[in-house]
């Protein structure tokens, strides 16, 4: 039986758990095939990566340099260096994900957004009217989850489509 999924978003963050969720989606989900009458578009996967804004990523929000030091020279250069580093990380994550996809010959697109992963994943799901969101689950214990929150838990409760949480074998044995 052919699938009827049009848009499946797979959220990746560079962890092996997120890449396991991508592999699972490619192996187990059937997308909508192309039809001769073209009434519906062919299904596709979107590999979604959310970058943290530079000030969140560094844990800093640098203020002016005291005692008359330069205010416009060092901080913008620092922020540009952080942004360039984040771009390299994002490219590496997406290249790895696309390498996984190339073996399966799936119809894949990529998208990168900047912001809080919880909110941005749900926002992209809503904007694209996704049929399914697939994501991995990190092995946070209850205390760490209480302080850091769980992106997968948030998305399960707020995404405007069904959500599939794929536990990697490592995560399953630690639980």
Write structural notes for this entry.
- With 175 residues, this protein is α/β, with parallel strands linked by helices.
- Helix content is 46%, strand content 17%.
- It contains 7 helices and 5 strands, in the order βαβααβαβααβα.
- It has a 5-stranded parallel sheet with strand order 3-2-1-4-5, sandwiched between helices.
- α4 (117-128) packs parallel to α6 (151-158).
- The relative contact order is 0.22.
- The model is unreliable at 171-175 (pLDDT under 50).
Radius of gyration over all CA atoms, rounded: 19 Å
Largest sheet: 5 strands, parallel
Helix/strand structural class = alpha/beta
Overall strand count:
5
Q: In percent terms, what proportion of residues is strand?
A: 15-25%
Record the strand order, biggest sheet. Answer: 3-2-1-4-5
Low-confidence stretches: 171-175
N-to-C CA distance: 35 Å
Mean pLDDT: 81
- Order of helix and strand elements from N to C terminus: EHEHHEHEHHEH
Number of helices: 7
Helix content: 40-55%
- General shape: globular
Write the layout of secondary structure elements.
Layout lengths: L6 E5 L4 H13 L15 E8 L2 H5 L15 H29 L5 E7 L2 H12 L3 E5 L5 H7 L2 H8 L4 E4 L2 H6 L1
Parallel strand pairs: 1-2, 1-4, 2-3, 4-5
